[in-house]
């Protein structure tokens, strides 16, 4: 442990060095020795354009577009314009999301304290250069590699890099790695590797925060696309051969019919609309000062069934007030000692900050040694030379960790805790601080209780409503706090949380993983939970199949936040906490969580609806190709017909549906549910269309345009019925959407120039009414299928 005198004025460095000068900084910037890898919250504009434009689906559609434009009229190339419009919309919306993320990331980024020209200034991490001297304090994230130059009980957690759970004590000369964080003590280090040479940058070079990695929704869509690929390759090859055979006297017509069969097999808008739905969600949450650092968090929080809440800073406000100081030793100047302890800590936590605000630093108290606060020890301390010349040492921390069980003072502390108050013990210490830091178990024999400091915590106004929301949604809330279990239980009781009457002291929880999982499953309120225990408890819940979200703001929450399925940090929390959280509530507003859940449910529910539509189209297109191959007849549609039907029953409605409100609870088995609707719906649409087409071929004498018109009518009506089912439950705008699509198709059938443009004209009565009858039968059967599917889902 390092002994030192106070640093007068806070501007003189230990050792007298004041950091780099402006000229030295400019020299290093010119040499490129700058930390030029800023933490990116989003993809670059170039990456966005490339990812939306250069896709496998766009490549397939692009080739077909070029082919059809060589042989056919512009009407048959309309599908190319639809793809271009969808791509542009996707790019524009994702750029909007990027700007929102970048702006929020600037607000939420950590700003290291760097010494420049003898002054300590806050800089962006991207402004640090080689040889900069950077301050470290509890909760600070180390942003570049370096070498420790001074340390006051400095302890660094490197578990996120190395996997080692125990903090590492750092002495001058020891290396520190970017990506680690300070759990106790303070110090300084000199930057030795910055930018892409830094350790964390090398690890994260391929990591992109704006991603859909480990997303059940995206994984499901990938599975669907694989299914589509396997289906369309043989069907497409057979269709190509057939159309050249049956249209051997008209090469151009064969090409157009072949393209007309291939285009609808590709679910061209599914991936684009998925990205669009997420991008819009990012923008909406950004308006609520909610920074989504990893896109799966939007979806993931909607699937969470257990949320673990840290009490301080989450359920209660981070700021606190002194309620009372109960003197235990009459001759101790408790207020002066508390003021001295407050002044001795450069990085006070919320409890010590409340003490600082109530008790100013006394004059002529000279600090000689410090023991910084540690979440593992749950106390801090300092030794002083008092104005009288006497030397004294003091500890301030949790009474139940500093005193032996059964001590009379603990009874008084528990009485305050039962009222939801936080209690700290001020104790005179008879042993050197460095000895107690090395052996915390010796504390009870080395202290004499001097005073109890009672601190009021204010419950967040939004906490009750937020907790009620989670309860209504079937999400179990568990409070996991480092505070006294009785105090945590009292706060939980004021919020009417189940299990608040049975708070558990985590120091007595079993270490066996199975027994721990049982205890965590059965109870809801836990106090005196250490950082590693929080991590273990999250893992225990996950081992029982729970999807777990963890909220927190302190350095003791970092490990649990990292391991949870979804980590939610507070904007006022430590830089390390914000760095590992997937979601950061920049305005510290706990009530924003329901908005994230709602956005996740909107994305999941709406993309499922959209996937139903697109995959239905793929299924009926593949089956129609097979029917044509078997019957050896021309494909019933030109590309313009498929573009018209697809736009009115899928493309345009899907755009609105993907962005609509949706409060349906997220369910597992996304792919299974989509297939259970799309396969029968696509089969029925293909059956109705094929029957109508074959009837039309028997009615008309070699009039392919009339046959196509009848088949198009049957396909449109069946697909519109499927859209009407997917649009439920109805609202005014959903009804208007379906009616608008129906009226639009009717307009095409009755307006002469549109008839000519789309090559659609109903001839006679028999074939058109047969098409309507086929579509009606298919729609009624689909209603039965849908009803059985909904009953199964509701039963789960």
Brief write-up:
The chain contains 29 helices and 21 strands. The chain is an alpha/beta fold.
What does this structure look like?
With 796 residues, the protein is α/β, with parallel strands linked by helices. 52% of the residues lie in helices and 16% in strands. The strands form 3 sheets. The protein has an 8-stranded mixed beta sheet with strand order 8-21-20-19-9-16-18-17, with helices on both faces. A hairpin with a 5-residue loop joins strand 12 (379-385) and strand 13 (391-397). The radius of gyration is 33 Å and the shape is elongated. The chain crosses the membrane at residues 53-71, 77-95, 227-246, 266-285, 610-635, 641-662, 674-696, 708-726, 733-754, 766-786. Its main location: membrane.
For this entry, give a set of tags.
single chain; 796 residues; alpha/beta; eight-stranded mixed sheet; 52% helix
CA(first)-CA(last) distance: 60 Å
Main β-sheet, spatial strand arrangement? 8-21-20-19-9-16-18-17
As a percent range, the share of strand residues is: 15-25%
Q: Assign an overall shape.
A: elongated
Structural class: alpha/beta
Spans where pLDDT lies below 50 across 5 or more residues:
1-16, 203-213
DSSP summary, beta strand count:
21
Domain P-type ATPase A: 113-207
Main location: membrane
Keywords: Membrane, Translocase, Transmembrane, Transmembrane helix
Subcellular location: Cell membrane
Secondary structure blueprint with pairings:
Layout lengths: L21 H9 L14 H9 L2 H16 L6 H31 L4 E4 L2 E4 L10 E4 L8 E13 L1 H4 L5 E2 L5 E2 L4 E13 L5 H6 L11 H31 L4 H12 L7 H17 L3 E3 L3 H8 L2 E4 L6 E12 L6 H11 L5 H9 L7 E6 L7 E7 L5 E7 L1 H4 L5 H10 L4 E8 L3 H6 L4 H4 E13 L3 H10 L3 E5 L4 H10 L9 E2 L7 H10 L2 E3 L3 H13 L4 E5 L5 H6 L2 E5 L4 H6 L2 E3 L7 H39 L7 H20 L11 H30 L4 H23 L5 H19 L1 H7 L7 H30 L1
Parallel strand pairs: 9-16, 9-19, 16-18, 17-18, 19-20, 20-21
Antiparallel strand pairs: 1-2, 1-3, 3-7, 4-5, 4-6, 4-7, 8-21, 10-15, 11-12, 12-13, 13-14, 14-15
Helix pairs in contact: 2-4, 3-8, 4-9, 7-8, 7-23, 8-24, 9-23, 10-23, 11-12, 19-20, 23-24, 23-25, 23-26, 24-26, 24-27, 25-26, 25-29, 26-27, 26-29, 27-28
Keywords: Membrane, Translocase, Transmembrane, Transmembrane helix
InterPro entries: ATPase_P-typ_cyto_dom_N, ATPase_P-typ_P_site, ATPase_P-typ_TM_dom_sf, ATPase_P-typ_transduc_dom_A_sf, ATPase_P-type_domA, HAD-like_sf, HAD_sf, P_typ_ATPase
Subcellular location: Cell membrane
């Amino acid at each position: 442990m390092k002994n030192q005198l106070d640093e007068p004025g806070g501007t003189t460095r230990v050792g007298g060095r004041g950091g780099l000068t402006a000229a030295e900084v400019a020299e290093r910037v010119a040499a490129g020795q700058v930390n030029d890898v800023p933490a990116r919250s989003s993809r670059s504009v170039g990456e966005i354009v490339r990812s939306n434009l250069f896709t496998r689906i766009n490549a397939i559609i692009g080739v077909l577009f070029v082919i059809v434009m060589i042989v056919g009229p512009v009407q048959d190339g309309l599908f190319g314009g639809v793809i271009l419009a969808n791509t542009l919309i996707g790019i524009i919306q994702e750029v909007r999301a990027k700007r929102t993320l970048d702006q929020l990331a600037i607000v939420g980024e950590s700003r290291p304290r760097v010494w420049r020209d003898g002054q300590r200034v806050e800089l962006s991490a991207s402004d640090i250069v080689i040889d900069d001297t950077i301050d470290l304090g509890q909760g600070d994230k180390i942003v570049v590699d370096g070498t420790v130059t001074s340390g006051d009980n400095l302890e660094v957690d490197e578990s996120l890099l190395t996997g080692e759970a125990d903090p590492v004590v750092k002495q001058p000369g020891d290396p520190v790695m970017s990506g680690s964080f300070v759990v106790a003590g303070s110090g300084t280090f000199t930057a030795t590797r910055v930018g892409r040479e830094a350790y964390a940058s090398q690890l994260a070079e391929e990591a992109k925060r704006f991603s859909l990695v480990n997303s059940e929704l995206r994984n499901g869509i990938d599975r669907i696309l694989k299914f589509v690929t396997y289906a369309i390759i043989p069907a497409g090859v057979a269709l190509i051969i057939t159309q050249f055979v049956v249209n051997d006297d008209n090469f151009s017509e064969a090409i157009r019919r072949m393209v007309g069969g291939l285009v609808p097999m590709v679910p061209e808008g599914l991936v684009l609309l998925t990205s669009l739905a997420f991008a819009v969600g990012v923008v909406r949450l950004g308006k609520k000062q909610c920074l989504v650092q990893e896109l799966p968090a939007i979806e993931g929080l909607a699937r969470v069934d257990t949320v673990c809440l840290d009490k301080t800073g989450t359920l209660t406000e981070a700021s606190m007030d002194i309620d009372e100081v109960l003197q235990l030793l009459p001759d101790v100047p408790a207020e002066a000692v508390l003021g001295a302890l407050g002044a001795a800590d450069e990085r006070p936590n919320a409890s010590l900050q409340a003490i600082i605000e109530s008790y100013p630093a006394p004059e002529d108290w000279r600090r000689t040694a410090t023991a910084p606060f540690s979440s593992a020890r749950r106390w801090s301390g300092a030794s002083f030379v008092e104005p009288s010349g006497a030397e004294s040492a003091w500890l301030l921390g949790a009474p139940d960790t500093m005193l032996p069980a059964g001590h009379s003072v603990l009874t008084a502390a528990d009485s305050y805790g039962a009222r939801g108050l936080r209690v700290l013990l001020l104790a005179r210490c008879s042993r050197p601080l460095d000895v107690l830091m090395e052996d915390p178990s010796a504390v009870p024999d080395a202290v004499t209780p001097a005073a109890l400091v009672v601190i009021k915590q204010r419950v967040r106004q939004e906490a009750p409503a937020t907790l009620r929301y989670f309860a209504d949604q079937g999400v179990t809330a568990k409070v996991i706090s480092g505070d006294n279990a009785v105090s945590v239980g009292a706060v939980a009781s004021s919020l009417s949380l189940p299990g608040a009457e049975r708070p558990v002291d985590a120091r007595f929880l079993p270490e066996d993983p199975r027994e721990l999982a049982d205890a965590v499953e059965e109870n809801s309120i836990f106090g005196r939970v250490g950082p590693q225990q929080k991590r273990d408890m999250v893992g225990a819940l996950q081992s029982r199949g729970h999807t777990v979200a963890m909220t927190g703001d302190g350095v003791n929450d970092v490990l649990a936040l990292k391991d949870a399925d979804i980590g939610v940090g507070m904007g006022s929390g430590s830089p390390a906490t914000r760095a590992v959280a997937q979601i950061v509530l920049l305005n510290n507003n706990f009530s924003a969580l329901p908005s994230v859940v709602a956005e996740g449910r909107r994305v999941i529910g709406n993309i499922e609806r959209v996937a139903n539509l697109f995959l239905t189209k793929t299924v009926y297109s593949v089956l129609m190709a097979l029917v044509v191959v078997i019957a050896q007849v021309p494909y019933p549609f030109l590309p313009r017909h498929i573009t018209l039907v697809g736009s009115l029953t899928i493309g345009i409605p899907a755009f609105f549906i993907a962005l609509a409100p949706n409060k349906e609870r997220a369910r597992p088995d996304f792919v299974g549910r989509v297939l259970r609707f799309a396969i029968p719906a696509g089969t029925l649409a293909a059956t109705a269309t094929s029957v109508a087409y074959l009837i039309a071929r028997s009615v008309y004498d070699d009039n392919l345009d009339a046959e196509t018109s009848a088949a198009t009518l049957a396909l449109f009506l069946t697909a519109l019925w499927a859209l009407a089912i997917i649009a439920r439950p109805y609202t005014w705008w959903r009804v208007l959407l379906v009616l608008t699509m129906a009226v639009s198709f009717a307009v095409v059938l009755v307006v002469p120039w549109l008839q000519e443009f789309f090559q659609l004209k109903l001839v006679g009565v028999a074939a058109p009414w047969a098409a309507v009858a086929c579509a009606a039968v298919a729609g009624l059967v689909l209603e039965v299928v849908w009803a059985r599917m909904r009953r199964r889902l509701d039963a789960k």
